[in-house]
Amino acid sequence: QVQLVESGGGLVQAGGSLRLSCAASGSIGGINTMAWYRQGPGKQRELVARIRKDGSTTYADSVKGQFTISRDNAKPTVYLQMNSLKPEDTAVYYCNAITWRDYWGKGTLVTVSS
Fold it and tell me: For burial by CB atoms within 10 Å, which of 16, 25, 84, 96 has the most?
């Protein structure tokens, strides 16, 4: 079992920045990919960014150049640096980790005011 705990969400004005963190615990040795997803009001959950154990990354087109995902394999923890935030970035952000199955955190709310 893997437990994921997100932190760093909150209320920010448009144009501001936030850094989300997700700390993994439990059977962390099997974690390969870690990722951030988000679910905005009335929307489906969507991939924001993922990072593999080798450090390679994938971003949603909507956040390329705006968000940066990184990880510390020693902890392990995954981060999401979010810059130039827009009201449409308002969502619950979920951490995801993949071993032989998917694990999810409970989410952290990011609200961007205009």
Answer: 96
- Closest residue by Cα to residue 34 from 20, 49, 19: 49
Average pLDDT of the segment spanning 26-41: 92
Structure tokens at 87: 């009201």
Percent of the chain with pLDDT over 90: 87
Residue 80 · residue 99 · CB < 8 Å: no
Tokens standing for 15?
Answer: 């144009």
- Other Cβ atoms within 10 Å of 55 Cβ, number: 9
Angle at CA 27, nearest 5°, toward 93 and 99?
60
Beta strands per DSSP E along the chain: 2-7, 10-13, 18-26, 34-39, 46-51, 57-59, 67-72, 77-82, 91-98, 102-104, 108-113
